[in-house]
């Protein structure tokens, strides 16, 4: 069993064959997947998919690329969407200083407002960080939710997705209590730096994800990515760590369950009938 902890199934890349893509995910042993909103329309679309399929869950949020349009109305609507029992996280949110498609002050405002929203709703966060490691870490530190028990860590729940920093950044993220998510590039022959990071991250704090339709792993690199290919990411992690595929699949599934789904299951069990 596997969980694809990050994909974008609402995108038009999947319009022609979305049903088949989802069926192939289940056939490949994916038991659950989280489809991620990047703005309000895509968050609504993600939630619509989650309502249609038992194994699909949604994250709602505004990506740094779309942060220029973020305002109070956006925040209110996100909060309303996030009440749905199949919304498992606020995301994806963060900072992108590589593309800079939104002004950096707008990115910072949207990121901070959504971190506070996640704290208020007690939901985990899914964080995007592209060439903004120092600023993302500083923002996360400034928005740590109150710790549930002193000495038990800062109480931050979430994942830094498609991690692209070095080992020092990874250690800082781990110290905040977050998971690290890894994608297709762990399978690329030339990604030696990334392999060093994967080797240093404890398996108990690691998630596998596709970020489909992007970041396609070997052997499908260059084609459209899809959730079924999360198995190649898990195989890549297993090869780097010298572990079996089964061990990586089991532990990363347990990690995703702990981060995203334990609350959902409790809610389901509490529901009468
Ligand atoms: Zn993404």
Describe the 3D structure.
With 273 residues, this protein is an alpha/beta fold. The chain has a single domain, classed as TIM Barrel (Alpha-Beta Barrel), CATH 3.20.20.140. 43% of the residues lie in helices and 16% in strands. The protein contains nine helices and eight strands. It has helices at 18-27, 40-52, 72-81, 104-121, 133-142, 167-175, 192-200, 230-241, 245-270, and strands at residues 2-7, 30-36, 56-60, 87-96, 125-130, 158-160, 179-182, 206-208. The protein has an eight-stranded parallel beta sheet with strand order 1-2-3-4-5-6-7-8, with helices on both faces. Helix 2 runs parallel beside helix 3 and helix 8 (230-241) packs across helix 9. The chain is globular and about 45 Å long.
By CATH, the architecture is named: Alpha-Beta Barrel
Under CATH, the topology can be stated as TIM Barrel
**How much is the radius of gyration in Å?**
17 Å
CATH C-level: Alpha Beta
Please give the share of residues in helix. 40-55%
Termini distance? 28 Å
Identify low-pLDDT runs. Answer: 150-154, 266-273
H-E string: EHEHEHEHEHEHEHEHH
What count of helical segments does DSSP give?
A: 9
Q: Average the pLDDT over all residues and give the rounded result.
A: 93
Distinct bound molecules: zinc ion
Query: β content, as a range?
Result: 15-25%
Shape designation: globular
CATH superfamily: Metal-dependent hydrolases
């Amino acid at each position: 069993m596997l969980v694809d902890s990050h994909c974008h199934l609402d995108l038009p890349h999947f319009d022609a064959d979305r049903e088949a893509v989802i069926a192939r995910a289940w056939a490949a042993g994916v038991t659950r997947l989280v489809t991620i909103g990047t703005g309000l329309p895509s968050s609504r679309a993600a939630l619509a998919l989650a309502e249609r399929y038992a194994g699909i869950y949604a994250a709602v949020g505004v990506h740094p690329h779309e942060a220029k349009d973020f305002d109070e109305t956006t925040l209110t609507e996100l909060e309303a969407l996030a009440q749905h029992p199949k919304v498992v996280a606020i995301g994806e949110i963060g900072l992108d200083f590589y593309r800079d498609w939104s002004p950096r002050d707008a990115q910072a405002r949207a990121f901070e407002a959504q971190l506070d929203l996640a704290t208020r709703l007690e939901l985990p966060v899914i964080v995007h960080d592209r060439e903004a490691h120092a600023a993302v870490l500083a923002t996360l530190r400034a928005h740590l939710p109150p710790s549930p028990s002193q000495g038990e860590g800062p109480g931050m729940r979430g994942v830094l997705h498609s991690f692209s920093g070095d080992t020092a950044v990874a250690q800082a993220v781990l110290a905040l209590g977050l998971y690290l998510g890894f994608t297709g590039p762990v399978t690329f022959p030339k990604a030696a730096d990334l392999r060093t990071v994967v080797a240093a991250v404890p398996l108990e704090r690691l998630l596998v994800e596709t970020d489909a339709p992007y970041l396609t792993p070997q052997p499908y690199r260059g084609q459209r990515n899809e959730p079924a290919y999360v198995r190649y990411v898990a195989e890549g992690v297993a090869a780097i760590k010298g572990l079996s595929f089964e061990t990586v699949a089991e532990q990363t599934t347990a990690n995703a369950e702990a981060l995203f789904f334990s609350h959902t299951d409790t809610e389901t069990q509490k529901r009468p009938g």
